[in-house]
Write a structure and sequence with these properties.
Strand content: 15-25%
Strand order of the largest sheet: 1-2-6-7-8-9-10-11
Bound molecules: magnesium ion
Radius of gyration: 19 Å
Distance between the termini: 52 Å
CATH class: Alpha Beta
Number of domains: 1
Number of strands: 11
Largest sheet: 8 strands, parallel, barrel
CATH topology: TIM Barrel
Helix content: 40-55%
Shape: globular
CATH architecture: Alpha-Beta Barrel
Number of helices: 12
Structural class: alpha/beta
């Protein structure tokens, strides 16, 4: 068969498959490396992990916005950093218990469902970087939280937006068991890029000091096509270094500052 004969069906097939997947063309992630840590909250004095901080990250055109997920005792997935919300331990409280308190801007504690819906509004450029918190109850509880989050992203048609991150390696492995195509980044800083790659984890998102200690992991990640992300980068010198090292993502409380540096 001639090459031209072989190419025709391939071209036709790719044209057809792209027609059948409008989602694929919908998202064009912002061409920068900035992930707003707990949303873009600092400059505007929004609460961390609020819907306002998520919307601000989208408005700033960050390529990603990060947030933290816990599960309440009655199975609500909620967005908050600490294990406690106003002295109530989230994992041991019901959502109704938690609702008696508000965030400092008057928002209710966001559910993951509300957060995803807000993340899909006026957004075709910002990734939703979803941290699943390791459970203080037991490892299996955390994995079940992950499972419920993955199901919700699927139900809300938001799978193409999400990058899952966790300090708990088994949570990421659980996510990959459910969706082998999921984007996953490991946070804990104790595995080499090659080890993560062998387990199907797509990126490493380590404290920047880990990369200062293991500069060889930067090269190793690039050689293995493992995504490079670093947290939480607020020092301008560290920003410069990671930009120079061509990191894929920089997770920061100062998204405006990193964006300004990238423009220069
Ligand atoms: Mg986090």
């Amino acid at each position: 068969m001639k090459t031209s004969q072989l190419l025709c069906p391939i071209i036709l097939f790719s044209a057809l498959s792209s027609c059948n997947s409008p989602k694929a063309s919908k998202i064009k992630f912002a061409d920068n490396i900035v992930v707003a840590h707990r949303g873009a909250w600092k400059a505007k004095n929004f609460p961390e992990n609020s819907i306002a901080s998520l919307q601000q990250a989208i408005k700033l055109n960050c390529t990603g916005t990060e947030f933290d997920v816990w599960r309440t005792a009655d199975d609500s997935l909620v967005i908050h950093h600490d294990p406690h919300f106003n002295d109530l331990e989230i994992e041991k409280s019901t959502y109704k218990d938690l609702m008696q308190f508000q965030l400092s801007n008057g928002e209710q504690l966001p559910t993951l469902s509300a957060y995803i819906k807000a993340g899909l509004t006026n957004n075709n450029h910002t990734r939703l970087v979803c941290e699943i918190k390791p459970s203080n109850i037991n490892a299996a509880y955390g994995q079940e939280t992950a499972q419920k989050a993955v199901t919700l992203f699927k139900e809300l048609n938001a799978e193409d937006y999400v990058v899952y991150i966790s300090f708990d390696y088994d949570i990421l492995k659980k996510i990959l068991e459910i969706n082998p195509k999921a984007n996953t980044q490991y946070l804990n800083g104790d595995k080499s890029p090659a080890e993560c790659k062998a387990d199907g984890i797509t990126g490493i998102d380590y404290h920047f000091s880990v990369f200062q200690k293991h500069p060889e992991w930067i090269k190793e990640a690039k050689e293995n096509n493992v995504i490079l992300n670093a947290w939480t980068v607020n020092d301008p010198k560290v920003m410069d270094w990671l930009i120079q090292e061509k990191f894929d993502f920089v997770t920061t409380n100062e998204p405006e500052e990193v964006l300004k540096k990238l423009k220069k």
